[in-house]
Amino acid sequence: MAALALVAVLVAVALALGAVAAVLAARSRASAAADLAALAAAPDAQLSPATACSRADGVVRANGAELASCTVVDGDVVVVARVRLPHVSPLALLAGASAPEAASRAGLR
Amino acid sequence: MTEPRRGPGSRPGHGPFGPDAGDDGAVTVEAAVSLLALVVAVVALVWGMSLVGAQLAVGEASRAAARAAARGASDTDVAAEARSTVAAAEVRIARDAARVQVEVSAVAAPPGLLGGLGSFRLSSTSTAAREPGSLP
Prior knowledge:
In chain A, 54% of the residues lie in helices and 20% in strands. In chain A, strand 1 and strand 2 (76-82) form a beta hairpin. In chain A, helix 1 runs antiparallel to helix 2 (49-62). Chain A has a 3-stranded antiparallel β-sheet with strand order 1-2-3. The radius of gyration of chain A is 18 Å and the shape is rod-shaped. By secondary structure, chain A is α+β, with helices and mostly antiparallel strands. Chain A contains 3 helices and 3 strands; from the N terminus they run H-H-E-E-H-E. Chain A has one domain (2-107): Pantoate--beta-alanine Ligase, Chain: A,domain 2, CATH 3.30.1300. Chain B is of the alpha+beta class. Chain B has one domain (26-129). Chain B has helices spanning 26-70, 75-85, and strands at residues 90-95, 99-108, 120-129. Chain B has a 3-stranded antiparallel β-sheet. In chain B, helix 1 runs antiparallel to helix 2. The model of chain B has no long low-confidence stretch (mean pLDDT 82). The chains are: A alpha+beta, B alpha+beta. The interface between A and B is medium-sized, with 26 and 29 residues.
């Protein structure tokens, strides 16, 4: 009986860790996508924000994320990328992390 | 006939050779089995966590390498950038006119004697735009 309870606890721990891992991986991917997209968009930020953001969108997509927002602030482009988790786990929902986002800012100086 | 001498705490009919000794060792066996299961489960959990860490590191390496490649770094420098995060990384670089794609992969094998149980190939691909003025 005790062994059964122990196994149940371990399974719960494993599921929780799996959910945390999925969120971490998604956040890391979103962060990489935002980073690389902001770099790609930076050269166009001052001349044409629309071109900059369409570049950002292309790079974000190429990195398996989606563009949550793209704005130009003081000549810098600010890119927010989002990665949707393939399986939305209840634990991730509880953590409010079903679609982790990451922002990155870049500009020419 | 005298009664055989018994140690403190022992009762008649309850001992290794007494009449109801049948399930005496059962608790020990159950404890041993569940301890073994516990150890296996904990090892699996720790291994899983280290895989997660390794995957995040591989992702970080591919991002750093893609940044370097976007700046126009040579293939050698791009690979070196990836290997500064993941020492045993295998790096593949694909460029087209506008983009550069870097795939970093590494084999994660369980530590020590468990190494033969199976290993995973972790990989991550990052794509960056080639910056204007970077070398072809």
